[in-house]
Amino acid sequence: MKKYNHILLIIMALFIFNGCSEDTKDTDTFNYITFESSTFPFGVDPEGSASKEIKVYTANLSGSDRTFNISVISDQTSATGYTVPATVIVPANSNVGTFMVSANGPDIDPAEGNTIVIQFASESGLFIGDPITILLEQVCPYPEVFLNMTFDSYPEEQYWELYDSNDVLLFEGGTYDGEVAATEKFCLASGSYQLVMYDVYGDGGGAYTLTSNDVELYSSDGNYGAGEVVPFTLP
After folding, report:
1. What is the pLDDT of residues 158-187, one digit of tens each?
2. What residues have CB less than 8 Å from 125, skipping those under 6 apart?
3. Contact 230/195 with Cβ under 8 angstroms?
4. How far is residue 112's CA from residue 173's CA, in Å, rounded to a whole number?
5. How far apart are CA 87 and CA 69, in angstroms?
6. Beta carbons of 34 and 127 less than 8 angstroms apart
7. Could you tell me if 132 and 33 are in contact, meaning their C-beta atoms sit under 8 angstroms apart?
8. 10-residue block means of pLDDT along the chain (235 residues)?
9. Spacing of C-alpha 174 from chain mean position
């Protein structure tokens, strides 16, 4: 009888110890989720679209899939033409989840770029990391073409147009009132183009160069009267 009671006490002690261990394990697990970084660079072809995978990490594991709500912070987001899902799933027995963000190149500001700021939704018992800022920018898949201009005393008289081989106007700029110099860049595929440089007064304007891939395509000292047409070809 004493032996039976001794065994029973051992079993009860083991049960209590295991129960305490499991309770400690549950309470010590930090229920936390965060994005892979605070910023995420995202380059897109100016004439196309792209999708990027963003990772999230949790501090604990679970035996089943977990779904977390995410949302765009609209008053901190300047981008348009993008897609962000409403949720991200962290698979069972993993602490890593992924979701896809898509963006359209033509909708991105070519000079300044745009941002998308994403956050986790607050939930009871869930600790969340900082939002992630996606930095959108147009990234040309070809060597970019640069128009570098140094103006004369009348920059307000100078302007330009850029056409493709079918005489379709692709870009235009000017005038440049109050500026000393300016640089314009273009993402152009292989083919033939023509730049038309104008001077409103008709007595020539500032000097300029047209380059691509560090190769000078054309250079002018500004003596082009009312204007000139500059044909060029990109390999």
Report:
1. 999 999 999 999 999 998 999 999 999 999
2. 31
3. yes
4. 17
5. 4
6. no
7. no
8. 40 41 49 98 95 97 97 98 98 98 96 96 96 97 95 95 97 94 94 97 94 96 96 97
9. 28
Type of residue at 104? N
Instruction: Please tell me the distance from the alpha carbon of residue 58 to that of residue 39, in angstroms, as a whole number.
Output: 18
What is the dihedral sign for C-alpha 58, 120, 81, 174?
negative
The pair of structure tokens assigned to 66 is: 């977990």
Percent of the chain with pLDDT over 70: 88
Other Cβ atoms closer than 10 A to 21: 10
Query: Is the bond preceding 27 in cis, omega lying within 30 degrees of 0?
Result: no
Report the C-alpha gap between 203 and 218 in whole angstroms: 20
3-state secondary structure the chain: CHHHHHHHHHHHHHHHHHHHHHHHHHHHCCCEEEECCCEEEEEECCCCEEEEEEEEEECCCCCCCEEEEEEECHHHCCCCCEECCCEEEECCCCCEEEEEEEEEHHHCCCCCCEEEEEEECCCCCCEECCCEEEEEEECCCCCCEEEEEECCCCHHHEEEEEEECCCCEEEEEECCCCCCEEEEEECCCCEEEEEEEEECCCCCCCEEEEEECCEEEEEECCCCCCEEEEEEEEC
Closest to 171 measured CA to CA, from 142, 193, 156: 193
Residue 162's closest CA among 117, 208, 196? 196
Instruction: Say which residue the tokens 């949302």 belong to.
Output: 71
- Location of structure tokens 């993402």: 187
Distance CA(201)–CA(59), nearest Å, equals: 68
